[in-house]
Amino acid sequence: MGAIYSTRGMAHHKRDENDRALADFDQAVKLDPRNAISLRSRGDFYQDLGEYDRALQDYNQAIAITPKDAEIFVQRGNAYMLKDDALHAFPDYDQAIALNPKSVTAYANRGEAHRVHGETDRAIQDYDFALKLDPKFAPAYVNRGLAEEDKGDLSRAIADFTTAIKLDPKMVSAYDERANAYEQTGAHDRAAADAAEAIKLDPSNPDLHKLR
C-alpha cells in the first residue's frame, strides 16, 4: 500500500505540487517504515528541494534496510556533494562501485568529487571509465571537459563539450561551458553564439555566462 502513495508522491512532485507530494511520501513511510524504496523516494524529494540533511536521514535509513543497493549509496554521495562535502561523498561512491562495478553514475559522480577536490587526473580517470561503460552519457563529457579545462587543455575541453551537445542538443550546461572555453581561446563569436543558445534554452537561469 505504501508504494502507491510513494508513486503518487513522485507524480505530484513532477507537477511541483510539493505539499501533496510530501504528504504522500510521509504516508508511504508511515505505512511501511522499512520500505527502502519509499525512504529513498522521499530522500530524493528532499534533495530536489535542497533539504540535504533530511535527504541524508532518509538515505541512512534506506541503507540500513538494504545495504547492498548501490544506487542509494550514489544518491547519498550526491547529497553530500550538494552540501559541498566531497570527503563524505567519496566512501559512498566507492561503496556503490564495489557493489556495482558497472555503475556509470557512481564513476561519473566520483569523478566530480575528485575534480572539486582538486584531484584532476583522478577525476579524468573516473570520467574515462564512466564513458567506457556508457559512451552516450553526456554529463560525463561535460564534467570531463571541465577537468580538462582545469588542466589548461582547452582544445580537449571544447571537444568534450561538443560531444555532449551532439548527444543532447538541449543540454544547457554544455553550451554554457563551451562558451566559456571559447572565450578563453579568443573565439569570441563562437562564445557569443553558444551563450545565446544556452540563454535561449534556459532564459531564467541567472548563472549563465552573458557573453553576447
List the helices and strands and how they pair.
Blueprint: H1 2-14, H2 18-31, H3 36-48, H4 52-65, H5 70-82, H6 86-99, H7 104-116, H8 120-133, H9 138-150, H10 154-167, H11 172-185, H12 188-201
Protein described:
This protein has 212 residues and is mostly helical. Helices cover 77% and strands 0% of the residues. The chain contains 12 helices and no strands. Helix 5 (70-82) packs parallel to helix 7 (104-116) and helix 7 (104-116) packs antiparallel against helix 8 (120-133). The mean pLDDT is 93.
Question: In a nutshell, what does this entry contain?
Answer:
The chain has 212 residues and is mainly alpha-helical.
Name the descriptors.
212 residues; 77% helix; mainly alpha; 0% strand; single chain
Q: What integer value in Å does the Rg equal?
A: 19 Å
| Number of strand elements | 0
What class, by secondary structure content?
mainly alpha
Bin the strand percentage: under 5%
Uncertain residue ranges: none
Question: How many distinct helices?
Answer: 12
Helix share of residues?
A: over 70%
How are helices and strands ordered from N to C?
HHHHHHHHHHHH
What shape does the CA trace take?
A: globular
Largest sheet report: none
- The N- and C-terminal alpha carbons lie at a distance of 53 Å
Mean pLDDT: 93
